[in-house]
Fold these 3 entries.
Entry 1:
Amino acid sequence: MLTGIPNTSGSVEWQSPANIALVKYWGKRPVQWPMNPSLSFVLKESVVRIRMDYEIGADIDFHLRGFSLNGQDNEAFAGRIERYLSGLSTFFPFLRHARLSIHSHSSFPHSAGIASSAAAFSALALCVGSIEARMTGKEESGSEFLRKASFMARLGSGSACRSLWGGMVIWGHTKWVAGSSDDHGCRLDEGAVHEDFRQLNDAVLIVDSRTKKVSSSEGHALMHTHPFRKQRVEQAGHNMERILGALRSGHMDLFGEVMENEALSLHSLMMSSTPGYILMHPNTILMIDRIRSFRQRTHTPAYLTLDAGPNIHLIYPASHKEAVRGFIVEELSSLCEDGRWIDDRMGEGPVALG
Ligand code: PMV
């Protein structure tokens, strides 16, 4: 804890990954607490790098001097970031006296069907945590530091709180995982994850890269009055129990069954809300069909999930890379927008760059 505001300046830099949910967070309570627990893993190649230059002094008022994305000033995003950082001053009082400049670089195209907000808000939270650590002489690593960063990332974008660790990460309290919390993410112990699930690949199949008709924030809000709200909470709890069991025992089929059930349930909730809406495209449905028949035909453990959009994440153990790549090239890439897909895999979490 700081007493008084010292005059100081410097620069911090973090790289943080996007994550893909297997059990979906859908619907929230104020302030950004989830309606149900969710589970995800972070990606290796889909990352955002953020450098934050700071000047802090008693006579400075909070101010974001500039925000750039891939070398270009980005005023649209700057407003959201400024509001977010100003809100964090409740937890980091020094921010009230900070002048900041933020430079961010994304390794993946903004509209590639990968949620960039999880990577961006987790990197921002880590940068603010690092500034505090440098001012107080605390460590910029370790479980306490990451838990606090996860708490802060959650306030920017709920799913961002799951981007702080490699391996499988859970967010939301569940009796099945000690230490799980609605406040922040929590990494599953190695012992809770069978080795068959430690090297998963994720092929992101881009069906449509345009901005969605209905944003995730609007989708979360529609869950307040959703006729299946109660059932969804029960279903997510049940699916969490089943997928945790599958992860522990190495039951690949059950893992895939739960993952696909979660993806299609998420989209059913969108269709059955008021007003209802559909984010899947005809090619999304065609791909789902082809993936399921490929699996039946070849017994390859490749399963799909979808975020709140039309693009498919095809998840499979790295040991089946050749077969799945051949399948994508022969049967799926022609259904992708301009043949585009991203070859990604499970990553190890954020990296401190400076
Ligand atoms: O964190 P948000 O508000 O972008 O919501 C994410 C919602 C889903 O991606 C659909 C599911 C999830 O758990 O990531």
Note: The helical segments are 75-88, 116-136, 143-156, 216-222, 229-249, 252-271, 282-298, 321-332.
Entry 2:
Amino acid sequence: MSKTAELIIDGKSYVFPLVVGSENEVAVDISQLMEKTGAVTLDLGFKNTGSTKSAITFLDGDKGILRYRGYSIEDLAEKSNFIEVAYLLIFGELPTQEQYIKFSDDIRTHTLVHEDIKKMLDGFPSTAHPMGVLASLFCSQTAFYPESLDPNRANNAVYLSIIRSLAKMPTFAAWAYKNAAGHPVNYPDNKLEFTARFLKMTFALPGQDYEVDPVITEALDKLLILHADHEQNCSTSTVRIVGSSKASIYSSISAGVNALWGPLHGGANQEVIVMLENIKNDGGDTEKWINKAKDKNSGFRLMGFGHRVYKNFDPRAKIIKKAADDVLKKLGVNDPVLEIALKLEEAALKDPYFVERKLYPNVDFYSGIIYRALGIPVEMFTVMFAMGRLPGWIAQWMEMRENKEPIGRPRQIYTGATLRPYKAIGSR
Ligand code: MLT
């Protein structure tokens, strides 16, 4: 393969180097483009633009491949657990038994949050969406740990910020839910492991024993693994560009939480259930809604189908679909909304309209179904996504810092008014 790319503008030839990754992906390095040609590229949504070189996650949209640090998502979902995967993403290698125990115990040590954060929580109305509460509480760590404001401090300070982020995110998430439910908060039970600890903190009620269901714990841990990273998606790109200004890890990740909240990104799993409930409340006629989805003038779009990157199937969806089937069977869940989901899934996988447009069920379709079956309230679905994505955000923020990447500063093509003299319009 050639090592360069040639660009011809107004008959003049410009040559740029090609960059080839470890999976033979090819990029044209245009870092000298403006200096050489005076031109910039235009790529709305950056869908054709590499923002960085990264060794964390590899995905192949055509083949439906997703790997964290070279390990397939299938292997990790089946054989690993969320904390081990978090270690792998952040530090680049699977932990030894000793490293795993230390990492888990370090996280366990920091699950409590400053009592003053409860005063912040009390200031939110119960109508506040848990994602807004989560982003605010997560960023509040900059106030309680001011040393984190200098991301270039000695690495043990950064390690402590990583541990605090992983340890306190579940506490913030559980408290955001309790605020929405109007219930008193629970404190973390450090005798439990990560996912079980979160479930008890979220769902235990005063005066009632709460037994963590191992089926739910295992399914949720698998979901967290499947959401842990996804290369340069919207929220991860947000974390990296905020972090590129040397903002703290807490404010960078809080920005990522806000980006994930959008219905076109992490909010899609909540939109799936809203769509299914609307179909149920309309009488449950899936055929009618499938036809609406095919009618461009209907303004109706099936949520949870297709993907910007995966062209044929989302590898995570395949794993979650099996987990959803297992959980529904084990829990004996019989939910009309889930029946509607299975009919939509069947149509999408068979109907030529959806097959031709690659509108197959994606990770958000099945995760919405499984969260509902696990008894997780719909307003907490995107919070679960954020909790899962946290190790990926941390790993990407760390990599950007370690690679000493420059501040992100994209350019534009200006299309507004050209120079015009000021003439007062009113009587000024
Ligand atoms: C994700 O996992 O972040 C979503 O699939 C969105 C994406 O990768 O663009």
Note: Residues 110 and 164 are 6 Å apart (CA to CA).
Entry 3:
Amino acid sequence: MTIAMTPPDGWTDHAAELGISFEQGEIDQLGRYLALLMDANTRMNLTAIRDETEAWDKHILDALTLVPVLAELREGACVVDIGSGGGIPGLPLAIVMPHLRFTLVDATAKKCRYLEETAESLGLRNVRVINDRAERLGNDRGERSPQGRRDAHREQYDMAVARAVGRMAMLVELTVPLVKVGGLVVLTKGQKADEELAEAKQALYMLHTTHAGTIDTPTGRIVVLEKQRKTPRDYPRGDGEPKRSPLGVRKA
Ligand code: SAH
């Protein structure tokens, strides 16, 4: 049994002002998650934030600012969190949105083992963890079977989310191929959101994706992108290529 951390005074009211309300037991679950994150952080590098009060805002609240956007999804919809690391934003969202299914993806095996153990000890049945690179999943069209293709990842998700994985021009190549046509890519960004969006303009065009809007939150800015048409077969490019030379960005 993990000891749960308790939120600082006024935290729950603050969340309520943002339209985030909690069911019985969810605050306790979030507190247990934070305790597990902080404990694992002594063994691997998951977050620079070590102060509890700060973690409730910069990790939990920051993840939950996405709730109003995810609230649009139907029951059973699939959300992929790319570069989940310590589990932000995927795990707090999975706790408060048990009717949605979350796939947490990270390239680092050790982080994935921690994510698995954490989801397991929190009893989250709506979470699966995949240790792979987003570039590979984005090209995974599944196995042929008599019933059609199985276990595909390309163009399978209703929504992709990501925080702190890299600048937008490269992140769109990692996320857009995974979502269905009409699906959304929702990125948690900071004050540089507009700058990154301008830099990603050509990449968005190449990936047939448009900017649907930017939402200001107390912890940053959320950029919402909408996939308009199928991703051209050339994308995503191979491992590390989106980061090495982001689409449409001139080398300095
Ligand atoms: N989203 C978390 C972690 C950010 S750190 C948070 O906000 O705290 C970035 C994470 O992305 C790292 O864990 C790294 O292993 C992972 N990552 C980077 N590039 C990736 C790729 N191409 N595919 C999958 N994971 C990737």
Note: The radius of gyration is 18 Å.
